[in-house]
Amino acid sequence: MKILIVGASGTLGRAVAERLAPRHEILAAGRSSADYPVDITDDASVEALFRRTGKLDAIVSTAGVLHFGPLETMRPADFALGLNDKLLGQVRLALLGQHHLNDGGSITLTTGIVAEEPIRSGANASAVNNAIEGFVRGAALELQRDLRINAVSPNVLTESWEAYGAFFPGFEPVNATRAALAYQRSVEGIQSGRVFKVW
Questions:
Q1: What's the Cα-to-Cα distance from 18 to each of 21, 107, 148, rounded to whole Å?
Q2: pLDDT value at residue 72
Q3: 42-81 burial string, b = 16+ CB within 10 Å, else e?
Q4: Amino acid 34: pLDDT
Q5: Are strands 36-37 and 56-61 parallel, antiparallel or unpaired?
Q6: Directed axis angle between helix 88-97 and helix 43-53, to 10°?
Q7: Closest to 147 measured CA to CA, from 17, 64, 55, 85
Q8: What pLDDT score was predicted for residue 134?
Q9: What is the DSSP track for 28-95?
Q10: Residue 161, CB half-sphere, CA atoms under 13 Å: how many?
Q11: Tens digit of each residue's pLDDT (9 = 90 or more) over 75-109
Q12: What's the pLDDT score for residue 167?
């Protein structure tokens, strides 16, 4: 398969690429990508990306920025960060990308454990991840041409524990290699409208 991974330079994106690369052609995209640069917050940038890639068999997104901070000091502009980036950015990839997938192709988006297990300073993350999962369930019922869409919901990653561990007291992190298995399941499997949890 010809697979586009958006967010391929991140910890999770790299693990997904390593998992899929032995069997598939991987196109690595992201804000800092030399070959396939993209800003997922911008329609024109995403459309330009798909013109460069041509037809695809799968789109995987491990991209998206969220706001973490106390609710007491959170401003609407802070909350909008996650809405405009991780939520609408991934929805944008799905809405525009569906037209560049071959019949039977798939889309895999990324959420996270805080959709079901809220954390302190994580109201934006919980809202955004829940919204993405709702979009996936609804979109799966309407996609044409046997296209599929799923989401992967990983726990905080072992590789990111030093930076984010303080937000997740008592959580058991998972390594990126284990999380990558769920993306393989989404891309190479047959299910649609699912949220694959890696907790």
A1: 5, 18, 22
A2: 98
A3: eeeebbebbeebeebbbbbbbbbebbbbeeeeeeeeebeb
A4: 84
A5: unpaired
A6: 40
A7: 55
A8: 98
A9: EEETT-SSEE--TT-HHHHHHHHHHH-SEEEEEE---------GGG--HHHHHHHIIIIIHHHHHHHH
A10: 12
A11: 999 999 999 999 999 999 999 999 999 999 999 99
A12: 94
The tokens describing 135, both together, are: 């979009």
Strands 56-61 and 25-30: unpaired
Compute the Cα dihedral for 14, 187, 45, 154 and give only its sign. negative
Distance of alpha carbon 49 from alpha carbon 53, whole angstroms: 6
Low-confidence ranges of the chain (pLDDT < 70): none
Six-digit token string for 163: 């930076």
Matching residue, tokens 């990111």 = 160
Neighbours of 189 (CB within 10 A): 14
The amino acid sitting at 166 is A
